[in-house]
Amino acid sequence: MTGSAKIKLQQALILLLDEEQFSCITVSKICKNAGVHRSTFYTYYDNQFDLLEDAYDYLTQLFKTEFEHYQVEYDLSQEKDLISNAYLLPYLTFVKDHQKIYKIYLEHQNDFHHKERFDSLVFHIFTPRYQAHGIIDSKRITYMSSFFMAGILQVIWGWLRNDCAEPIEEIADIIQTCIPKRRNNG
Description:
Helix content: over 70%
Number of helices: 9
GO molecular function: DNA binding
Pfam families: TetR_C_8
Number of domains: 2
Radius of gyration: 18 Å
Protein name: TetR/AcrR family transcriptional regulator
Organism: Streptococcus ratti
Number of strands: 0
InterPro entries: Homeodomain-like_sf, HTH-type_Tx_Regulator, HTH_TetR, TetR_C_Firmicutes
Structural class: mainly alpha
Strand content: under 5%
Distance between the termini: 63 Å
Order of helices and strands: HHHHHHHHH
């Protein structure tokens, strides 16, 4: 039950977040919904924030798995444009589907291991795309990725504060408009 209990706790928290605010979710509620005893919770976690971090990691891993599926489905292995609909629409759909946990994450970024997640995104998503454009300097890729993510996160944060009222396609268009396209000289 060891590994499965942690997953049950993570899934229970995610489901509870769809019903109520994080600040109202108690350890007792989480344990009841997960079908585990309080002692099991405290075997793995000190508090709800620790569980929230694991739940966010769980969602991140889920997204990476789904994203790999999208890459196969849409043949994105050769896609070089990070702001194409092929990338943005699946990502924005995932954010909208899990908006409560994204809001909590963005409100409490300092409580999470943000650097490790960012480094993982740079390695798995950004580096191959930048290298496809001939950019191979790792420091340059990190700076460019930071700039790119900061802008997108600001747009997404505004969208989340508005309860994702605007259509996903509109948000994708806004992001695409903010990033200038490379001109072909000739």
